[in-house]
Amino acid sequence: QHGRVKVKTTAQQEEEKRKEREKKLQIYVAARDACFTKRKDGVFDDEALQLTQQLLSSNPDFATLWNYRREILLHLETVRNQDEVQKIYEAELSFLESCLKVNPKSYGSWHHRGWVSARLPRPDWARELSLCDRCLSLDDRNFHCWDYRRMVVKMSGVPVKQELDFTDRLIGSNFSNYSSWHYRSTLLPLLHPQAPDTPSQCGNPPPSASPQTHFHRVCEEQLLKEYELVQNAFFTDPNDQSAWFYYRWLLGRAERDEMISCVYVSREEERVAVAFSRPVNAQSVGLLLILDGQPQRVEWQSVHPHFKNSPVWICSLPPGTISDVANEHNLTVHWTEKHSHRDCALYTGRSESWCRDTATDLELFRSELSVEKTSVLQSELQSVRQLQELEPLNKWCLLTIILLMRALDPLGYEKETLAHFQTLKDVDSMRSAYYSDLCSKFMIENTILKMEYAEVRVFSISDRKLTTLCHLDQLLLVTHINLSSNQLQQLPPQFAMLQCLEVRIGTLFFLLFFINLNSEISTLADLQPLASCPKLKRLDLRGNPITQTTNAEAELAGLLPSVTDLLL
Amino acid sequence: IAQLKDVIIKPDAPSSLLLDKHADYIAAYGSKKDDYVNNIHLKYDNAIGKMDTINVDKAVEFVLSCMNFDGGFGCRPGSESHAGQIYCCTGFLSLTGQLHQLNADLLGWWLCERQLPSGGLNGRPEKLPDVCYSWWVLASLKIIGRIHWIDKAKLRRFILACQDEETGGFADRPGDMVDPFHTLFGVAGLSLLGDEQIKAVNPVLCMPEDVLQRIGLQPDLLS
C-alpha cells in the first residue's frame, strides 16, 4: 500500500468505521465466494460475468477473477457468432476503460485489455492508440500505458517514424519525460541504425541482447541531430534529469566486438595467457590452442578460482614443449564459438612473446571522432561550460563537461577533469564515492594510454586519490606497478590478472618484481591477493596504517615469505 | 520547470530503531482475520535446486533483452527501467552466474541517482522516495558491488523516519500508514546498511545469511 496518510481519529469514529468496514466486507466476501463456487463448478453464465465485474470494479488487482472472467469469455466465444463476440468484447473494452479511469496503474486491467484487444474479431487499433494518447496526457510516466502502447504499435504496424514524432511532441510540451526519452532510445536505432563496418548498410539487426551493442546504436548523422534536440531540453530546464541521462547515452559508444585481445607466452614457465574483450567461460566456448600446427591438449584455468567467467585465462604446456630457446614456435589460439583467433610467434633467443590489440587500437576509452562530430562536441562543451557558470550548483553540467572532455581528449583535459571532479564532490556530496570511483577509472584509463604510447610495461599511478582499481585485464603485460599515495583500501581479486602471469595447476602466482603501495592498507586481510605471488621480492608499504600494528613485520613475513625487501 | 519530488523529514521523526515495537506489530498482524496479502515480486523460490526444469540459456537471453540504454531493466523488452525489475533481473543474473553481462558502472550510477536530498530512494527518476526501494535499489547495488555509492547515513535516517512509534512497523514514507510489506523492506534495508541489531540478510534471496549458510547456498556478487 502506497501513499496512505495516517489520520488520527477518536474511539467513536473508529467504531463507526469498523462497523461500516464489517458490512462492506460481508458483501464482498459473499460475492467472492459465489465466484469461486461457480468457477469450481465450471459455470460460465451471465451472473458470473456480473459478479466478477462488481468485484473487479472495486478491486482490479484480484488477478484470479480476471482469469475466471477470461475463462467465461473463452466459453462465450464457442457459443456465440462472430458479431456477438465482437459486441461482447467491445463491452469488455468499455468496462476496462471505466476500471482504468479509477486505477490507471493496475497490472490486471492493462493485461486484460491487451488480451481482449488481441482476441477482438475486428480490433480498432486507432481507438486503442488514442486511449494511450489520452492516458499519457494525464500521466506520461505510466509505464503500464507505455507498454500497452508498444503492444498496439506492434500489432497494428504503426511506423517507427510516427512514434518518434509522438515522443517529439511529448518532450516538447511536458516535463518529467524520462519515459519518452527511453522510448526514443529504442526507436532511433531501428530507424537509423549504426552498422558495424559499413556506414551505408542498413540491414536487419539480429535479435541482440543488449542496447549497448552496435545494432542498438545510432548512425552519426542522426546522432548529431539528436545532440541538438537534447541540448535544447537541458538548456530549457537544466534540472530535468532525463535529458542529461539520455545525453550520457548519446555520448557513449557501442560495446566491443567479442574477440581475443591478447595472447602471451612465457618460455621459462611454459605457459600461455589469453585475454578476451569480455569475460568468458573458456572451458565452454571451444578454446583451442595450436602449437606449430598441432592441437594441444591443455587445461584452461581462470585467473581467479571463484570466477567462472573471466577476461583472462591461462594454461600450461607439456614440459619441454617450448623450453629450448634455440627453437622458434608458432602459436594460435582459436575461439571456435566466435570464429576468432590470434597468432603469436615465439622467436629464438626470446624468453617471452605476445600479440595484442592495444587499448588505443581498440579505441577502448575513446572512439575515433569524425571532423564534424569533433566540431559539434567542442561547441557543446563550450555551451555546457557557459551553462555551468550560470548554474554553479548543477551537478549535471559538471558531470557532462567531464564526459565531453573524455570524449574529445582524455589526456589533454586530465587536469581540468580532476578539478571538475573535486567540484562535483562538493556540489553532490551524497554521491562522492561514485565520483571518486569514476575519477579513478578515468585516471587509470589515462595511465594505460600513456603507458601504451611510451611502450613500457610499467603501470605507475600515484597521488591520484584512487579509490578503486579497474581495467586490470588491460595490465596483462605489466611487470612493475606503482600505486603509492592513493586511497585504495584493499586489492581486488581481479589483481590476479596482472602480468607476468604464471600458473601451476591448483595455485596461482605472478612474477612481480616490485610493488609500491601507499594507500590505506590497514589489515593483513587487505594484502591477501599478494599471498598468491611466491616470486614477489620487494614490497614498499610505507605510509600505510598496517605498519603501525604491533608485530606487523613478523605477520607480514608469515603471509609473504618470498618478500626479501619489506619496507615499513 | 521540473520540481524535485521528495519528502521533508520532520525534526520529531523517529531516529532510532524501534525493534520491539516492530516485533509486536508483526506478531499482532498475523492474528487478524481480514488480512489482505500483498503481491510482491516473486522469483525462484521453487526453482532453487530445480534449475534444470527451465531453459536457463533462453531465460538469460530474455532478461538481457530487457536491458535498456541506462543499464537498467524493465518488465518486457522495450519497457522503461524500474528498480523493482532491476532487482529481479540482477538477482536472476546472480543465480544463473551471469552478472558479468551487466554494465555495473552504468547501472550503479542510475541506482545511486535514486537517492534524493531527504536520503530516501525512489524507484525511477522523478518519483517520490519509498522505503521499499531501500530494498530493491540497495540490494541491487549490493549484488553489483556498488553499495558504497549511496550515502548510507542519510538513507538510514530516512528509513528510521518511516517508523510508526505508536503501532510499530514501517510505512512507505514518513507519516503514512504502516504495513508488513514496508516493514520487511525497512528492516532488510537497515540490515544491508550494516545495522548490528539485525541479522545479516542476503541481497539476492532476501533471507538471513545464516539460513543460507546452513544449506550451503551462496549466490554470486560482484566486488
From TrEMBL, chain A:
GO biological process: prenylation
Domain of life of the source: Eukaryota
Record bears the keyword Phosphoprotein: yes
Protein name: Geranylgeranyl transferase type-2 subunit alpha
Principal EC category: transferase
Keyword Thylakoid: no
Lineage: Eukaryota, Metazoa, Chordata, Craniata, Vertebrata
Domain Rab geranylgeranyltransferase alpha subunit insert-domain residues, every copy: 260-359
Membership in a protein family: Belongs to the protein prenyltransferase subunit alpha family.
PROSITE patterns, per database record: PFTA (PS51147)
Enzyme Commission number(s) from the entry: 2.5.1.60
Record GO cellular component, one term: Rab-protein geranylgeranyltransferase complex
One function term, GO molecular function aspect: Rab geranylgeranyltransferase activity
Described function: Catalyzes the transfer of a geranylgeranyl moiety from geranylgeranyl diphosphate to both cysteines of Rab proteins with the C-terminal sequence -XXCC, -XCXC and -CCXX, such as RAB1A, RAB3A, RAB5A and RAB7A. Catalyzes the transfer of a geranyl-geranyl moiety from geranyl-geranyl pyrophosphate to cysteines occuring in specific C-terminal amino acid sequences.
Keywords, ordered alphabetically: Leucine-rich repeat, Phosphoprotein, Prenyltransferase, Repeat, Transferase
Catalytic activity of the protein: geranylgeranyl diphosphate + L-cysteinyl-[protein] = S-geranylgeranyl-L-cysteinyl-[protein] + diphosphate
TrEMBL record, chain B:
Cofactor(s) essential for the protein: Zn(2+)
Catalytic activity, as annotated: geranylgeranyl diphosphate + L-cysteinyl-[protein] = S-geranylgeranyl-L-cysteinyl-[protein] + diphosphate
Aminoacyl-tRNA synthetase keyword on record: no
Cross-referenced SUPFAM superfamilies: Terpenoid cyclases/Protein prenyltransferases (SSF48239)
Residue ranges occupied by any Prenyltransferase alpha-alpha toroid domain in the UniProt entry: 49-207
Single GO term (MF): metal ion binding
Cofactor note: Binds 1 zinc ion per subunit.
Domain of life where this protein originates: Eukaryota
Enzyme class: transferase
EC assignment: 2.5.1.60
Alphabetic keyword roster: Metal-binding, Prenyltransferase, Repeat, Transferase, Zinc
UniProt key word Nucleotidyltransferase: no
GO cellular component, one term: Rab-protein geranylgeranyltransferase complex
Summary of the function given for this chain in its UniProt record: Catalyzes the transfer of a geranylgeranyl moiety from geranylgeranyl diphosphate to both cysteines of proteins with the C-terminal sequence -XXCC, -XCXC and -CCXX.
Family statement: Belongs to the protein prenyltransferase subunit beta family.
Identification of the protein by name: Geranylgeranyl transferase type-2 subunit beta
Native species: Cyprinodon variegatus
